[in-house]
Amino acid sequence: MTEQPFQLTAELQQAVSSFFQRIPFNQVLGIQIGELTMEQVTLHLPMKPELIGNFIHGILHGGVISSLLDVCGGAMALIGAFANHQHLPVAERMARLSKLGTIDLRIDYLRPGRGQHFTATAQLLRSGNKVAVVRMELHSDDGTLVAVGTGTYLCG
C-alpha cells in the first residue's frame, strides 16, 4: 500500500493561519499572511511608525526584520511538519506540532529596510522528524533584497 502524497488542503492552510494569528506579537507587528503552500510561505508587513529603528531615515528596525523572518520560517517549518506527521493520529500530531519552536536563527542584514511594505518568503531546505531547516528572504516594496535568514526549528 502506497502512502498518498501530502496535500496542503484549505483546512490545513486555515490551521496554519489560525496558529500564527493567535500569537499576539504577530498582531502587534501587523504581519499579514499572503501565500501558504508546500513550496513557499509568503508574509507581508506594512510599515508603520512603531516599527522604525532609525528615526532619521525611517528605516525598519532590525528586530522587526528578524522577527518577521522567524515567523515566516516557523510557518514553513509547520507546513513541513504537517507533511512528516500525516501518518499520526490527530491528537498525537497536534501534540507534536504544539512544540514548534526556534532552535537557531541567523539573519544577514544586506540593505536598510526602506519602504512602505515588506514581503518575507520562506522555503523548506530540510524537514526531518524532529527538526526543520528553512531559508528566508525579506524584500522591500521596490524589490530590494533587505535581509536573508536561515532558521532551524524544533517541529516534533
List the helices and strands and how they pair.
Layout: H1 10-21, H2 24-29, E1 32-36, E2 41-46, E3 52-54, E4 59-60, H3 62-84, H4 90-97, E5 101-109, E6 117-127, E7 131-140, E8 145-154
Antiparallel strand pairs: 1-2, 2-6, 3-4, 5-8, 6-7, 7-8
Give a description of the structure.
The protein is 31% helix and 36% strand. The protein has helices at residues 10-21, 24-29, 62-84, 90-97; strands spanning 32-36, 41-46, 52-54, 59-60, 101-109, 117-127, 131-140, 145-154. With 156 residues, it is of the alpha+beta class. The strands form two sheets. A six-stranded antiparallel beta sheet has the order 1-2-6-7-8-5. A two-stranded antiparallel sheet has the order 3-4. It has a single domain (10-154), classed as Hotdog Thioesterase (Thiol Ester Dehydrase, Chain A). The mean pLDDT is 89. The protein contains four helices and eight strands, in the order H-H-E-E-E-E-H-H-E-E-E-E. It is elongated, with a radius of gyration of 16 Å. It holds the Pfam family 4HBT. Keywords: Hydrolase. This is Medium/long-chain acyl-CoA thioesterase YigI. Belongs to the YigI thioesterase family.
Task: Summarize the entry for a quick read.
The chain is α+β, with helices and mostly antiparallel strands. The chain has one domain (10-154): Thiol Ester Dehydrase, Chain A (Roll), CATH 3.10.129.
